[in-house]
Amino acid sequence: MVRRIALEAGVPRFSTHTTRHLCLTDLARMGWELHAIATFAGHRNTDSTLQYIRLSGRDLADKLARGMEHIHAWRIQALTSPVDGQEIPHDLHDQLHVIPHPCDHASPGGRRIRRCALGRP
Questions:
Q1: pLDDT, tens digit, for every residue of 61-87?
Q2: 38-47, 54-63, 76-85, 99-108: which has the minimum mean pLDDT?
Q3: Taking the alpha carbons of 52, 58, 60, 62 in that order, is the dihedral positive or negative?
Q4: What is the C-alpha to C-alpha distance for residues 108 and 33, in angstroms, rounded to an integer?
Q5: Three-state DSSP class for residue 112
Q6: CB hemisphere CA count around 76 (13 angstroms)
Q7: Any idea what DSSP says for residue 43?
Q8: pLDDT of residue 117
Q9: Distance CA 82, CA 108 (A)
Q10: What pLDDT is recorded for position 24?
Q11: How many Cα atoms sit within 13 Å of 47 on the Cβ side?
């Protein structure tokens, strides 16, 4: 029935599995762990689940950027937190806050540009 409706609508590649691909890909984009997606889909093996998930380079780049921002913030917090009640000298504190983000690179003109590992600005 779905096949007939898809053909009548002029979408010959649409099937019930299309909605399954979309659903499992959306769960991956929302940050669900692979094993949780596999359990939700009723798969015994995560390899089966991986066949349904279609993440683009942009999806992967966004995930990497969010992870790097989290790691960078954590490093700054760890480096600027007082140890055993001792305050961090203000000049050192200011220097630590200008540590470049791991994905920042200098352009030939000296301007900082941010590129993720997949090359997106």
A1: 887 888 888 888 888 877 777 666 666
A2: 99-108
A3: negative
A4: 40
A5: strand
A6: 16
A7: -
A8: 45
A9: 37
A10: 92
A11: 1
CA gap 96, 73 in Å, rounded:
11
Residues listed for the chain: 121
Q: Which two tokens stand for residue 121?
A: 């600005």
Candidates 30, 29, 27; CA nearest to 40 is 27
62, with CB counted inside 10 A (0-12, 13-18, 19+), is middle
The residue to which tokens 């760890």 are assigned = 78
Q: Which tokens in the block code for residue 80? A: 């600027």
- Residue identified by tokens 């200008």 is 98
Write out pLDDT tens, residues 89-102: 555 555 555 555 55
Task: Report CA torsion sign: 101, 55, 29, 45.
Answer: negative
% of the chain beyond a pLDDT of 70: 67
Residue with tokens 């991956």: 28
